[in-house]
Fold this protein.
Amino acid sequence: TLQRDLDRRETNPPLNFLEQTASQIGGRENLVLMRPLPSVVQGKLRIETTEFKLERLDMEQVLRILQEMEQASPPMRVDRLHLKQRFDNAAQLDMSVTVSAARRN
């Protein structure tokens, strides 16, 4: 359940998880933006939202990053996803994502 997932995940903030995942899969040099947005409190939960952008990814890397976010504990919700084919290499994509994760307040 969400409460159990929150208990297990409290030690690793979403921003750290996203930075590690994006760097491991997409390469640190391709991570061009990582920006935390203001948190929103909803009852006993704090919703933390992060925007990030990766460049020069292939489709497999995009899918792996999305899968890691989905399998995170607690899962991260993709609020916005924008993929754009690169003009200099049609096989590569630029990925802009806004994700949110719930934590105990």
